[in-house]
Amino acid sequence: MKRDDVMKTIQGAEVCPGNAGVIKVPLSDFRHVAEGLRNDPQSPMDFLRDIVGMDWGEEGLGAIYFMESTVTGDTIAIRTATTDRQQPLLPTVSDLWKTALIKEREVYDFFGILFTGHPDMRRLFLREDWIGWPLRKDYDMKSNPLRLDNEINADITKEYRLQRDGTLQGIDHRVFGEDDFVVSMGPQHPSTHGALRMRIALDGEVVKKVDPVLGYIHRGIEKMNESLTYPQTLGMTDRLDYLSAHQSRHALCTCIEQAAGIEISERAQYIRTIMDELQRIDSHLLFYSCLVLDMGAMTPFFYGFREREMILDIFEETTGGRLIQHYNVIGGVQDDIHPTFCQKVKDFIKHLRKVIKDYHDIFTGNVIADTRMKGVGILTKEDAISMGCTGGTGRATGWANDVRKRHPYALYDKVDFKQITYNECDTFARYMVRMDEIMESCRIIEQLIDNIPAGEFRVKTKPIIKLPEGIWTSAVEASRGEFGVVIESHGDKTPYRMHFRSTGLPLVQAMDTLCRGWKFADLIAIGASVDFVIPDIDR
């Protein structure tokens, strides 16, 4: 479909209510529209931000596709659906965007939608023998007994192709070759940063393929949210990426506030922005500590924890929490900052600026660290965009993907800071992005900490919050990349559907590309440099 035809189809289509501007595209036109948007010569939608599976009842089963052009910054969201609930089929877009290889599997896992042409239609989070599709509205919660037997991973997967006569042809693909030597790494926490398992095909010490096995701590958060009121849903975000707890909750509060027309005070905006940046420093310090420990260095590990404890002390005085943060609420923040907050933050930044040199002296210039990181684990800019690898991993390829710059929120359009990018695309670049971002976060905080205005820290809201009917979205720059929230409301006090864009799901997908051809020991350093957090992936 030519660009003019695509634009006519889009312009003549129905737009869903809400701030997302989701355009309804008929299933018969969907594949042509997707191709046209991806290959548009003027504004190519090369970044598929997310695919959100949906059950619209009588309207059918389908998905919403959120796209963005890295060339122009334009965004668009389209949805399509099939009314066949017995054998729901949608055409794959995995040949257009690599991130669809894993995100279409997520939709299949929870809604049972088969993506024709997708080469790997396996479950993603749930067991292969799981019965039913949990995020469908007609799902029987009692359909799965408690299983105490071990799960057998499928080594044969199906690709489904729709024939001209309307029949479906299944083609078998092997996950690993018959002669592949496959080892299982995980699910244990050391070196995997959570309960992650990777099946790895090796040729001697050289990695041939990495197949992530997810879902070991899947808790069904998106399903639970459908029975919770909007204030109750806030408690779920803190247990996703616990090193982005402030930022994740910020995104959800912002989405609800925008939909409900709630305007928070300037004081609350200042506090939220400062807390987000303290959280980023906290996360990057832990990143440093874990990276060096995974590579065998002990002393730098204690450096990172020493300064991180200072941040946690500051958090605890104001929020009451150290790891899990329940501070942001709808309308602002739950309590005002502690009387000593501002002074302690300034003292901490002054201290951090003095000691950061020690971090680099002991590790960054170390010959062993340089040898193991420089030129190792290459992820190109094109692959980073196609896979949706945002955050430090994407910026290490030269892709300027920071949400704070692309779509400013809170006070990020009022402060001066540099978006850190490197062009080397390797493990060392991913490390340096985060180390430099620590200092940029300090710059942001320094511009705000002495200028927090007086006023309310929280505005009054209704006891029961009902959002207008529509599809609502928001996104923030979390510690590991773009964290997004999608809410479909039918005007009730509970969401019809609430979805979180995992920052880590594209990162763990990229491990296969990053590690192929490198030694098994390199995989440990590469994984640490990517910096995924498993609860955010599994949800």
UniProtKB/TrEMBL annotation:
<comment type="subunit">
    <text>NDH-1 is composed of 13 different subunits. Subunits NuoB, CD, E, F, and G constitute the peripheral sector of the complex.</text>
</comment>
<keyword id="KW-1003">Cell membrane</keyword>
<comment type="similarity">
    <text>In the C-terminal section; belongs to the complex I 49 kDa subunit family.</text>
</comment>
<dbReference type="Pfam" id="PF00346">
    <property type="entry name" value="Complex1_49kDa"/>
</dbReference>
<dbReference type="InterPro" id="IPR001268">
    <property type="entry name" value="NADH_UbQ_OxRdtase_30kDa_su"/>
</dbReference>
<keyword id="KW-0511">Multifunctional enzyme</keyword>
<dbReference type="InterPro" id="IPR037232">
    <property type="entry name" value="NADH_quin_OxRdtase_su_C/D-like"/>
</dbReference>
<keyword id="KW-0520">NAD</keyword>
<feature type="domain" description="NADH-quinone oxidoreductase subunit D">
    <location>
        <begin position="465"/>
        <end position="539"/>
    </location>
</feature>
<dbReference type="Pfam" id="PF00329">
    <property type="entry name" value="Complex1_30kDa"/>
</dbReference>
<dbReference type="InterPro" id="IPR022885">
    <property type="entry name" value="NDH1_su_D/H"/>
</dbReference>
<keyword id="KW-0472">Membrane</keyword>
<dbReference type="InterPro" id="IPR001135">
    <property type="entry name" value="NADH_Q_OxRdtase_suD"/>
</dbReference>
<feature type="domain" description="NADH-quinone oxidoreductase subunit D">
    <location>
        <begin position="294"/>
        <end position="463"/>
    </location>
</feature>
<dbReference type="InterPro" id="IPR029014">
    <property type="entry name" value="NiFe-Hase_large"/>
</dbReference>
<protein>
    <submittedName>
        <fullName>NADH-quinone oxidoreductase subunit C</fullName>
        <ecNumber>1.6.5.9</ecNumber>
    </submittedName>
</protein>
<dbReference type="GO" id="GO:0050136">
    <property type="term" value="F:NADH dehydrogenase (quinone) (non-electrogenic) activity"/>
</dbReference>
<keyword id="KW-0560">Oxidoreductase</keyword>
<feature type="domain" description="NADH:ubiquinone oxidoreductase 30kDa subunit">
    <location>
        <begin position="24"/>
        <end position="143"/>
    </location>
</feature>
